[in-house]
Amino acid sequence: MSTEYRVPAQTRIGHVHLKVSDLDRALQFYCDLLGFELVTMYGEQAAFISAGGYHHHIGLNTWHSQGAPPASRYGVGLYHVAILYPTRRDLAVIFDRLRRHRYPLTGASDHGVSEAIYLDDPDGNGIELYWDRPCELWPKTPDGSIEMYTHPLNLESLLAELTT
Predict the structure, then answer these.
(1) Which 3 state secondary structure label does DSSP give 16?
(2) Residue 110 and residue 158 in contact, taking contact as beta carbons nearer than 8 Å
(3) Per-chain mean pLDDT for the chain
(4) What is the pTM of this model?
(5) Number of H helices, E strands in the chain
(6) Which of 85, 75, 83, 157 is nearest to 119 (CA)?
(7) By the 8 A CB rule, do 55 and 78 touch?
(8) What is the spatial distance between Cα 150 and Cα 110, in angstroms, rounded to a whole number?
(9) CA 68 remoteness from chain centre
(10) Integer Cα distance of 13 and 134 in angstroms
(11) What is the pLDDT of residue 1?
(12) Going from the N-terminus, what domains does the chain have, and what CATH number goes with each?
């Protein structure tokens, strides 16, 4: 494999497009619960949603999946979509909202460089809600490389962000 080409440092993942089985149910989850804004419908089988007026961060469609069961957890495909929140307090707000709505989580982890909450959308697509710590606080190994790990997230500490 050639190492001559490197993706430009400013490159970003622009959006994700998910196949869902029920568009209304998906919109209830992403817009009504998580708080994304509906930008536009594309006929009756697709919707584009965003944060802050962007054309779309997430596309949802039923073009090939109307009424379909969730994809197998043990098959190939998407592991999760990661949604980056700007601050730890913002992550605390959405965690509190999920908690108050009794929405089930699949995990909550401190990765050293970030803190994350994990859940599945109604179609079984994995969702990671997270915030990045400032890079100067990222843990380092003795050789200076970034050290990432998976420790339990202190949810009480996260909720304390709401009272400060």
Answers:
(1) strand
(2) no
(3) 95
(4) 0.92
(5) 3, 9
(6) 83
(7) no
(8) 6
(9) 22
(10) 20
(11) 62
(12) 14-67 (3.10.180.10), 79-164 (3.10.180.10)
SS3 140: strand
Side-chain-facing half-sphere of 132: CA atoms under 13 Å: 7
pLDDT digits 0-9 by tens, 100-130: 999 999 999 999 999 999 999 999 999 999 9
Q: Hey, what's the torsion of the CAs at 29, 33, 36, 39, to 10 degrees? A: 60
Alpha carbon distance 92, 136 (integer Å): 22
57: nearest Cα among 90, 76, 80, 84: 84
Please name the residue that has the structure tokens 């500490």.
Answer: 157
Residue in this structure with the two tokens 């200076």, named with its chain if needed: 144
Determine the residue type at 117.
Answer: I
With contact defined as beta carbons under 8 Å apart, do 81 and 125 qualify? yes
**Are 49 and 37 contacting, i.e. CB atoms less than 8 angstroms apart?**
yes
**Position 54: which residue type?**
Y
Give how far Cα 91 sits from Cα of 15, 31, 62, 162, Å: 20, 16, 29, 10
DSSP lists the bridge partners of residue 47 as 41, 60
